[in-house]
Design goal:
This protein is an alpha/beta fold. The protein has a single domain, classed as Glutaredoxin. It is built from seven helices and seven strands. A hairpin with a 5-residue loop joins strand 6 and strand 7.
Length: 198
């Protein structure tokens, strides 16, 4: 039993180091320290999901994804700060990631997209979904309820999470902007027998 715990601890440490390397390709100690703190604070934390957030697909109301259904979930939170259209240019990459996940893991991974658009940005958001042919259901959280429950990091690099069945954070990072993060997510998901029980 002690050996299993030690092995899990070592594996956890190795994953943390790899995640930090990918999250921070910078040389500044301050940014690296900040990344360490965020990863340490969020790993193992349970994400709370608000009830009754409407879902849309290409601007039309649709059935929401059950947040407790699958073995793994990838949660992307997009708040209203900054340039929403700039941050959503990765929609095409998300389509590729979802197609690959479906092919490799056959329904074991759900993708939960929570958008908190400003009132004036809602039409632009729908335009971008149509432009990129992004048909996956998304949560339109105009009151920012998910962030009120969880208090996500303000840095956009840390607003995407790999979650387990119980909605606990396993890894942090956005695979649509860093292919190395997607490789780590895939390795973690495919190696369930070696995964860490947090």
């Amino acid at each position: 039993m002690m050996q299993t715990t030690n092995r899990q601890g070592k594996a956890y440490g190795q994953y943390m180091i790899i995640v930090l390397l990918f999250l921070c390709s910078c040389k500044r100690d301050g940014r690296m320290q900040s990344a360490r703190q965020i990863v340490a604070e969020w790993t193992g934390k349970e994400i709370q999901f608000p009830e009754g957030i409407p879902c849309q697909s290409l601007g039309q109301d649709t059935v929401c994804i059950n947040t407790h259904n699958s073995t793994y979930k990838i949660l992307l939170y997009v708040d209203s700060t900054g340039c929403s259209s700039c941050r959503l240019k990765q929609l095409f990459e998300w389509k590729n990631i979802m197609a690959e996940a479906d092919s490799l893991f056959s329904g074991e991974v759900d993708f939960l997209f929570f958008f908190q658009p400003k009132k004036q940005d809602e039409k632009e958001l729908q335009f971008l979904f149509r432009q990129y042919g992004f048909r996956h259901p998304v949560f339109i959280d105009t009151k920012n309820e998910i962030d009120k429950l969880n208090k996500f990091p303000s840095q956009t690099d840390y607003q995407c999470f790999l979650l387990d069945r119980d909605n606990r954070v396993l890894m942090i990072g956005n695979p649509s902007v860093n292919t190395g993060i997607w490789q780590l997510f895939k390795r973690y998901i495919s190696g369930r027998d070696r995964s860490i029980n947090i």
